[in-house]
Amino acid sequence: MSLPTRRRPPPRPSGSTASERLKEAAIIEFSDRGFHATTTRDIAARAGLSPAGVYVHFPSKEDLLYAITLDGHLAALEMLQEAATDAPSPVEALRTTVGTFAQWHAERFQDARVVQYEFPHLGHEHREHILGIRKQINAVVSDILTLGVAEGLFDVDDIPATTLAILSMAVDVCRWYDSEIKRSPESIGNDYGELAVRLVSARG
Amino acid sequence: MSLPTRRRPPPRPSGSTASERLKEAAIIEFSDRGFHATTTRDIAARAGLSPAGVYVHFPSKEDLLYAITLDGHLAALEMLQEAATDAPSPVEALRTTVGTFAQWHAERFQDARVVQYEFPHLGHEHREHILGIRKQINAVVSDILTLGVAEGLFDVDDIPATTLAILSMAVDVCRWYDSEIKRSPESIGNDYGELAVRLVSARG
DNA sequence: GTCTATACCTTGATAGAC
DNA sequence: GTCTATCAAGGTATAGAC
């Protein structure tokens, strides 16, 4: 079965500018070893700059983390909103949004790990901004469930709790996925979209 | 509906010895800020010791992380095995194991965060040992699914993938749960046990 | 915008008295 | 077993030449 409303995330622009190369280097280092275990020297070396070169483009290591997490959250939110808008029914909307979200957590598992695991290390102001985007991501799925319940398609007791459980499954993909894994991101997306539908579908 | 085979995790022994107090302090600090962002001074201060006091009881910060993660993984494994053994059927076994597991991830969310998010920062040898225990945890659920499929109770395409998705939901509880949250760990355990059964049950 | 050099601080861990 | 004092290493970030 094909899922025509599912979109592949656009390829990440390859780093031409120093600023792009720094962000790409930081994603690899942060996702691999965590924000605090990564040194600015590691990032600079991977981007082909001297240790001081980082500070021309980002005022601090935390600002670099913020730039990355902001990119990642906005990309995820836009993909979800687009998938939800295009879907002809709540069932299709749930299948395609969760599928897209899970696929992204596999295909871009390094970006996703920074998004999911490192954003708590942001400073207060930056973290608050990101938390606002996260609420919007939550709302995309929550709204689909609300609509599906109203139309009698879904059987859901507690919408916020179920939203959380569905997103949990998809988010956790970035924890176990890596480039060694045989299952394709597309196949993972298909499976998780299906699991989400199964989790909320009204019984015959 | 009551779930008689679900057990409450035993209360954590309150820290009488300095070694216990150090482990408790480290759980709080590691879960809150991560392994690398936590200093041995933070841990020592919380345990009521001088910075040097740590090294009488643990040869290094990494050894302290290992002691904590080992405790946590063994506790989780034992709870799961006990729940699985006591259950009268695969359906009940799945409900009670996943429920127990999710409940633990709420009730002991700080221990669980160290177990789930900090264990990758262990040294090679220690990490390998922990990975062995994690495989056993996986196997408890995987074996239940296999049995349930053989008995025609479950409808599961890919047992490893479904095991992963079910455990993902429960593991992720420790990411969002905290002491502010109104839902009780028991109620979360009930819900997640039910969700797991719903995910794999054969359709009428 | 990139470099070399370095200031200044914090870190994990140790020495040695009690 | 706990302390005070301290070391050596490595951290973020800055200064100033080019």
Task: Describe the protein in words.
- The structure is a homodimer of 204-residue chains.
- Chain A contains ten helices and no strands.
- The first copy, chain A, folds into two domains: 12-58, Orthogonal Bundle (Arc Repressor Mutant, subunit A), CATH 1.10.10.60; 61-200, Tetracycline Repressor, domain 2, CATH 1.10.357.
- The two termini of chain A are 22 Å apart.
- In chain A, α7 crosses α8.
- Chain A is 70% helix and 0% strand.
- The model of chain A has no long low-confidence stretch (mean pLDDT 94).
- By secondary structure, chain A is mainly α.
- The interface between A and B is medium-sized, with 26 and 26 residues.
- The structure holds a DNA duplex (18 and 18 nucleotides).
The gist of it:
The first copy, chain A, has about 200 residues and is an all-alpha fold.
Tell me the layout of helices and strands:
2 copies of one chain form a homodimer.
Chain A lengths: L17 H16 L6 H8 L6 H4 L3 H26 L3 H18 L1 H10 L5 H27 L8 H13 L1 H4 L8 H16 L4
The first copy, chain A, binds a DNA duplex (18 and 18 nucleotides) through helix 3.
- Total domains of chain A, how many? 2
CATH architectural group of the largest domain in chain A: Orthogonal Bundle
CATH class of the largest domain in chain A: Mainly Alpha
Alpha carbon gap, first and last residue of chain A: 22 Å
- Global shape of chain A: elongated
Biggest sheet features of chain A? none
CATH topology of the largest domain in chain A: Tetracycline Repressor, domain 2
Question: Quaternary status of these chains?
Answer: homodimer
CATH superfamily of the largest domain in chain A: Tetracycline Repressor, domain 2
Order of helices and strands of chain A: HHHHHHHHHH
**Are there runs of chain A of 5+ residues with pLDDT below 50, and where?**
none
Greatest interface and its participating residue counts: A-B, 26 and 26 residues
How many helices of chain A? 10
